[in-house]
Amino acid sequence: MDNSRERTQLGMNQPIARxxxxxxxxxxxxxxxxxxxxxxxxxxxxTEAEYPPLRTGLRGNxxxxxxxxxxxxxxxxxxxxxxASEIRETYDxxxxxGGISGLAAAYFYRQALGPDVKILILDNHxxxxxxxxxxxxxxxxxxxxxxxxxxxxATPYPYSYTAKMLIRDLGIEVERYQEFINRDLEAKxxxxxxxxxxxxxxxxxxxxxxxxxxxxFFDRAPLTDAARRDLVRLHGKNPDYMASLSAEEKKARLAKxxxxxxxLNVAKVSPDALPFFLGSGGRNNKRVDTxxxxxxxxxxxxxxxxxxxxxxxxxxxxxxxxHFPDGNATIARLLVNRLTPxxxxxxxxxxxxxHTIVQAPVAYxxxxxxxxSVRIRxxxxxxxxxxxxAPETAKSVTVTYRQGGKMQAVRGRNVVLACYNxxxxxxxxxxxxxxxxxxxxxxxxxxxxxxxxxKRWTAFQELKVxxxxxxxxxxxxxxxxxxxxxxxxxGVTTPEEPILLHLTRNxxxxxxxxxxxxKLGQQExxxxxxxxxxWQTRRQLAQMLAGTRxxxxxxxxxxxxxxxxxxxxxxxxxxxxxDVPQEERPHVLGRKRFGSIAIANSDAGAAxxxxxxxxxxxxxxxxxxIHQGLC
Length: 631
Ligand SMILES: Cc1cc2nc3c(=O)[nH]c(=O)nc-3n(C[C@H](O)[C@H](O)[C@H](O)COP(=O)(O)OP(=O)(O)OC[C@H]3O[C@@H](n4cnc5c(N)ncnc54)[C@H](O)[C@@H]3O)c2cc1C
What we know:
Elements: H1 3-10, E1 57-60, H2 63-66, H3 69-73, E2 90-96, H4 100-113, E3 119-122, E4 134-139, E5 142-147, H5 161-169, H6 184-189, E6 192-197, H7 199-202, E7 206-209, H8 225-235, H9 247-255, H10 259-266, E8 281-282, E9 286-287, H11 293-298, H12 329-339, E10 374-377, E11 380-387, E12 397-403, E13 406-417, H13 424-427, H14 433-439, E14 445-454, H15 458-463, E15 465-469, E16 477-480, E17 499-505, H16 514-527, H17 530-544, H18 552-555, E18 556-568, H19 586-590, E19 597-599, H20 610-627
Parallel strand pairs: 1-18, 2-3, 2-13, 3-10, 6-15, 13-19
Antiparallel strand pairs: 4-5, 6-7, 8-9, 11-12, 12-13, 14-17, 14-18, 15-16, 16-17
Helix pairs in contact: 4-12, 4-20, 5-20
The structure holds flavin-adenine dinucleotide.
Flavin-adenine dinucleotide binds at residues 96-102, 122-125, 130-132, 149-152, 154-155, 381-382, 418-420, 423, 447, 449, 564, 567-568, 601-602, 608-610, 613.
């Protein structure tokens, strides 16, 4: 098929809500935008120019938000100076980073010192929340809410007392989640999961419904006899592949080999079976070649059930769980309500709750209100943070930032850097060299969360699937949005209704060390155009849903690609990182207070979870309070 015909069939020429915010920036804010009529905002409704969650196209770490990062890392702002006469604002605390950690730091600081302290939060994006980002779509007068990043209150280790108290203070009743799950969809239509085997790796495109542990699952998959035999064995009862060793010896060996090495060299699985494992691995986007086999065993991967490993009891992850329609962007919104009620006002009965916040309007133009004690200044990239004097005795810190291409500066008596560890050495040129080195150690994990607004989901009804794993696909997974029904917002109930699809890509480069894979994946995301993302999205959907009534040219109403080149915090593993005591870990050495500057963010906890972002915020604030002799 010639390329232009395929492009037409996939709908690359369709007027959907996407190119208007090409590369994350409005082509012309205020000018008429080329919307398809169905996705146009109703007249009088809030528009994407004033309300960033409505912006479609390339989002997440969109290009304009990170355009200064390279120059920053190259040291080009190391001596940036704004004349003292032009620095007119002084705050008790300046926070760099408006993610959950930065917002929580503001919350804790006020909690300690009272509501009159003056706080400024700077963030380089046009929206607050950092990874906890809300995507909204309007279609035929209905608003669909999705999560562009942080999906759930969920964690592999328990929330600390501090994090639980914050969640409770914000009015989130985690224990009530069961009341709000949108059960209609899967139960009513008998939807389950499926795996997509692609032609390039498995010889033909085929969607196989069901669970790989089901008896006939692999019989229906396009596999060689050897691969089928070994996959059936692995998903059944396995022998003890290391029978001559004690449990401790087995664990020590498994900690030092990848899951791929275990499969190929210990379980003696045919290399033909390996592609089936390429799309999954471990936490933090580790893949089959980068996840230690022991970690794979701890997470329930197949192959270990005959090995008597005596694994320690793991914390039951689902025991503290909540999913809002916009994911943990709700936490960010609740924090903003508490910090800047001018932007998200209280309800008649008091502060916003987990119910009222879901559809609460946000006045973005009130976030940076000169009259507010907390101000949130968006689209502002901090480029230099320096004490006004010797770090331990200076009375203030100057924070220089770029907004709209212009250099500005403010002063803070204290500063919390709730941004990315990798940038801090360039932001604070005066940091000790060893601390800089420690901060540069990790390599953030890249990933993409794409949202596709489908006009109807009858194709999924036909296939009886709600979730598809694609081990070798451009996207490794896809799911119908679960859309919690809460606060007057209703999850989808019939296949004729529009729905959001959630697609995930982890741009790994198999065969390389994990950090190298993260780095190359990051570069890939930074250099891929929206058009390429759109093409890949449409093509994979067409392949996976082939044989149904799905028409990519007619059924897609909007696409938002949340690219996160600066995604998850780096976490350690037993393959690539030295085994050193916790206090010698780079994130611990890197997060040391430096004069009046403290370091928060989930990077500082080497764990990519909301609770870590909160805990690090509290630690950073405490360090500053102690430094000032206030506690
Ligand atoms: C796609 C995705 C899904 C996730 N899902 C979950 C989940 O389901 N549950 C969970 O618990 N965790 C999840 N996480 C982990 C998530 O990172 C944490 O939960 C948490 O939100 C991190 O918050 P943070 O404030 O530490 O960092 P961030 O959210 O990264 O916030 C830091 C902010 O600082 C800004 N910044 C950086 N440099 C500068 C600068 N120079 N000037 C100004 N601003 C700057 C950044 O742009 C960002 O807005 C997910 C992460 C990603 C990327």
